[in-house]
Specification:
alpha/beta; seven-stranded mixed beta sheet; five-stranded mixed beta sheet; 14 strands; 37% helix; globular
């Protein structure tokens, strides 16, 4: 089978599985009160950390383990004339979903949303959405447009957030303090619309927010019926940061990257969550 046709079919299968995920309610994943959840930070095409994550999760032998991926695309390239090849990692992540549909989950992220909107965000001096598209066309040639259409459908299928019964809320980010008054939490109860994804929409505000304050996190905790937040989005050179004893920010996109597994059946504290943070470098 043509590589482009096969890739498009994988993305389409994964998109369907995302939409049919039994844990999905509106655009919120509701996790059970048993097993384990493994939360990651931004990956941005980091192949080695993704492979280590797969090794750690060992989903074939851990049927009650769930894993969340987000911000997979838009890698740091070696030179300005090199193509972004993070679409290959996105394809492997989609294949992982096809292989383990009830265990592999995704979250909408600002870079994935930027790709959907073809927003002109720059990274290392390049417009990442256009560079990503060029990488797809370079890899699949005549089938490039078909693959991009399937990727668009896959990105549209990504949930916005997840919540556990032991009161942990997971999302790519949270609204910024200035955006909070305009944020409509009922976006989690429905399939997001084009309006939700637009620059003033609630899905956009959720994935793009930064610099949350202590008071805002308290407000969001009440809004989302959660005690703790695990997110990505805000770069962390040492792999993670903790904000106001409520929010953990993970980064999975570099050699100091981390991920966070935690038990879904037991009460959690911020101290327990911090102790569970694992560096990818420790996975051998």
């Amino acid at each position: 089978m043509n590589d482009g046709i096969e890739a498009a079919e994988v993305f389409q299968q994964a998109a369907t599985l995302n939409r049919e995920d039994p844990l999905l309610h509106g655009s919120l994943l509701k996790f059970p009160d048993y097993g384990q959840l493994v939360m990651t930070g931004d990956l941005h095409g980091h192949r080695r950390n993704f492979e280590k994550l797969k090794k750690y999760c060992d989903l074939e032998h851990a049927g009650a383990r769930h894993v969340i991926l987000h911000e997979i695309i838009h890698e740091d390239v070696q030179s300005l004339d090199a193509h972004d090849e993070s679409h290959f990692l996105l394809l492997d992540a989609a294949r992982w979903k096809v292989d383990y549909p009830d265990q592999v989950h995704f979250l909408q992220s600002n870079h994935e949303l930027a790709q959907l909107n073809r927003s002109e965000i720059t990274k290392s001096g390049r417009v990442v959405a256009l560079d990503f598209e060029a990488g797809v066309h370079g890899a699949y040639e005549n089938e490039g447009e078909r693959v991009l259409e399937a990727i668009t459908d896959f990105l549209l299928s990504l949930p916005l957030a997840g919540r556990t019964q032991n009161r942990v809320f997971v999302s790519h980010s949270l609204p910024s303090p200035r955006a909070l008054p305009a944020f409509d939490p009922t976006v989690l109860e429905r399939v997001p619309t084009d309006e939700d994804f637009a620059n003033t929409g609630s899905a956009y505000l959720l994935v793009w927010g930064r610099y949350q304050t202590e008071n805002e996190l308290d407000t969001l905790a009440e809004m989302f019926d959660a005690d703790f937040f695990i997110c990505g989005h805000q770069p962390q050179e040492t792999g993670y940061d903790v904000r106001y004893e409520r929010m953990i920010i993970l980064s999975s996109e570099h050699n100091h990257g981390t991920f966070l597994p935690f038990d879904l059946s037991k009460p959690v504290t911020i101290e327990k969550l911090i102790r569970n943070i694992r560096p990818f470098a420790a996975v051998v």
